[in-house]
Amino acid sequence: MKRRKARLPHIKRRNARELAIKALFAFEIEKGDPIRQLDYISADWEMAGFDEHNIESFLSLVEDEYARRLTSGILEKKEDLDTIISDYSQDWDISRLGGTERNILRMALYEMLFGEKLPPAIAINEAVDMIKKYGSPEAARFVNGILGKKAEEIKKLNRTDEAAASGAGAVC
After folding, report:
1. I want to staple 19 with a disulfide (CB 3.0 to 4.6 A). Which of 35, 67, 72, 150 is the partner?
2. Domain ranges across the chain
3. CA–CA gap between residue 70 and residue 115 (Å, rounded)
4. What are phi and psi of 103, to 5 degrees?
């Protein structure tokens, strides 16, 4: 019997994503240990983005673990993620992107391609919601465009793989 992966509730994943983005942004500025940055941010409920009235729900162990996996995974795959971003952001150098936009793009791509392989529509929606919160409307359109192009490529690859798999057993 195959065990299903436990799924984090939507709000817990969003909290973890926001913590990871804050740690990655701090890492870009200070160049210190990103997990230490995550620990620092998650130890301060105001910096983590929670309000006083929700302090009892502040950073469960599950959120903390997911934020750590995201942060570590994104940094491990940073070069691959940056190559994808550069490939899809025609005529736009990745170094010209703001840290928030760059890290949100990295996170969404990581979740689509490497982590738990989130469905692209969910990863894109989460990224756009986060960029609207931390960035600008123009940045939201840019992020949506980049991720939408990659989602189309993933969809085409999946169709090709499905066609190859269904044709694999055919006798000629």
Report:
1. 67
2. 9-75, 77-157
3. 8
4. -75, -35
Third-level CATH fold of 77-157: N-utilizing Substance Protein B Homolog; Chain A (1.10.940)
Q: Which two tokens stand for residue 116?
A: 């738990």
Question: Once rounded to an integer, what is the mean pLDDT over residues 90-119?
Answer: 86
Instruction: Write out pLDDT tens, residues 134-146.
Output: 888 788 888 999 9
Phi-psi region of 118 (alpha: psi -120 to 50; beta: other; left: phi over 0): beta
Helix (H, G, I), strand (E, B) or coil at 50: coil
How deeply is 12 buried, as exposed, middle or buried, from its count of CB atoms within 10 A (0-12, 13-18, 19+)? middle
Q: Does pTM top 0.70 for this prediction?
A: yes
As a whole number of Å, the end-to-end CA separation of the chain is 36
> In this structure, is the dihedral angle defined by the CA atoms of residues 158, 160, 162 and 165, taken in order, positive or negative?
negative
Contacts of 43-49 with C-beta under 8 Å, sequence gap 24+, read 47/22, 48/15, 48/18, 48/19, 48/22, 49/15, 49/18, 49/19, 49/22
Cβ–Cβ under 8 Å, residues 111 and 118: yes
Question: What DSSP letter does each residue of 89-106 carry, written as one string?
Answer: STT--GGGS-HHHHHHHH
CB distance 84 to 109 below 8 Å = yes
* CA triple 30-20-79, angle to 5 deg: 70
CB 128 within 8 A of CB 14: no
